[in-house]
């Protein structure tokens, strides 16, 4: 058996979620957009890691493609509600001068510590996993191996003009099209509000990138349906069908920039 199985949109459950996060800035010195994009593709964990989530390059490959291994944190009174759940993605497309796209995965190989804790969650003192709390034994192991989302996420860095942003700025952006990978994950999202925590992960990434590169943020005027938080403009939309998603003008514009965000 292969080390991973792709969790594609057509295998997911619930609405189609489309989100887009961007930050505009003026770089320090003469750093070009291509240089910064190359830096992001190589040092992604350096910029991603925050109090909300951490990532490392995976020690397994998916069909020859590099992987990233995530652990998101939802901390309440110092308890990591996500433990022992981790998420894997494969980098399915990369242009080092532009950005990259990842596909969510289900891990198929044995990870002794994580699988054992999912199998017997009551034995894990001081932790609570809302996923394995619903199912037991091998069923818990199965669901715990899955990324809780089915779909893809892309990152891109380029001149503001590429994104329709005025001024002499560079824009860093990440977008995603996702569904829940299993009905099991839809209950903890409702109870714990995990979906409400996701924006903080991507807002932290964009701010980390700008700060660590010594760049100066240039505030933008958000468009209709967009919001602003901590210097980042973002859009989150949900659709009851893939057709409705594709028909939305925001997605149609983004798809021109991110053709790998949907499977061929």
Characteristic terms for this protein:
Alpha-D-Glucose-1,6-Bisphosphate, Chain A, domain 4, alpha+beta, eleven-stranded antiparallel β-sheet, two-stranded antiparallel sheet, 13 strands, 8 helices, 264 residues, 27% helix
What would CATH call the class?
Alpha Beta
What are the low-pLDDT stretches, counting only 5+ consecutive residues below 50?
Answer: 74-79, 122-128
Strand content: 25-35%
- Give the H and E element order: EEHHEEEEEEHHEEHHEEEHH
Shape: globular
| Class by SSE composition | alpha+beta
- C-alpha Rg (nearest Å): 18 Å
Tally of distinct domains: 1
Sheet with the most strands? 11 strands, antiparallel
CATH topology: Alpha-D-Glucose-1,6-Bisphosphate, Chain A, domain 4
Count the strands? 13
CATH homologous group name: START domain
Please tell me the overall pLDDT. 86
User: What is the straight-line distance between the termini?
Assistant: 24 Å
- Oligomeric status of the shown chains? single chain
Work out the helicity level. Answer: 25-40%
Q: Architecture in CATH?
A: 2-Layer Sandwich
Number of helices: 8
Q: Would you write up a description of this structure?
A:
Helices cover 27% and strands 32% of the residues. With 264 residues, it is α+β, with helices and mostly antiparallel strands. The protein has one domain (4-257): Alpha-D-Glucose-1,6-Bisphosphate, Chain A, domain 4. The strands form two sheets. Strands 1, 2, 3, 4, 7, 8, 9, 10, 11, 12 and 13 form an eleven-stranded antiparallel β-sheet that branches. A two-stranded antiparallel sheet has the order 5-6. A hairpin with a 2-residue loop joins strand 12 and strand 13 (232-239). The longest helix has 19 residues, at 194-212. The two termini are 24 Å apart.
């Amino acid at each position: 058996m292969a080390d991973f199985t792709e969790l594609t949109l057509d295998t997911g459950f619930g609405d189609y979620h489309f989100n887009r996060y961007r930050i505009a800035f003026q770089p320090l010195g003469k750093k070009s957009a291509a240089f910064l994009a190359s830096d992001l593709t190589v040092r992604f964990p350096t910029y991603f890691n925050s109090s909300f989530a951490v990532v490392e390059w995976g020690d397994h490959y998916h069909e020859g493609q590099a992987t990233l291994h995530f652990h998101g944190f939802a901390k309440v009174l110092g308890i990591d509600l996500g433990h022992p759940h981790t998420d894997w993605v494969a980098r399915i497309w990369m242009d080092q001068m532009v950005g990259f796209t990842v596909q969510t995965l289900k891990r198929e190989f044995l990870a002794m510590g994580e699988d054992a804790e999912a199998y017997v969650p009551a034995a894990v003192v001081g932790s609570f996993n809302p996923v394995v709390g619903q199912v037991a034994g091998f069923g818990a192991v199965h669901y715990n191996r899955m990324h809780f989302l089915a779909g893809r996420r892309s990152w891109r860095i380029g001149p503001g003009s590429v994104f329709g942003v005025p001024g002499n700025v560079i824009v860093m952006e990440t977008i995603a099209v996702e569904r829940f990978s299993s009905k099991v994950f839809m209950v903890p999202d409702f109870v714990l509000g995990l979906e409400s925590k996701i924006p903080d992960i991507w807002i932290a990434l964009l701010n980390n990138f700008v700060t660590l590169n010594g760049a100066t943020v240039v505030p933008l005027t958000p468009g209709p349906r967009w919001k602003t938080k901590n210097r980042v403009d973002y859009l989150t939309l949900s659709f009851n069908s893939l057709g409705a998603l594709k028909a939305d003008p925001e997605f149609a514009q983004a798809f021109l920039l991110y053709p790998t965000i949907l499977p061929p």
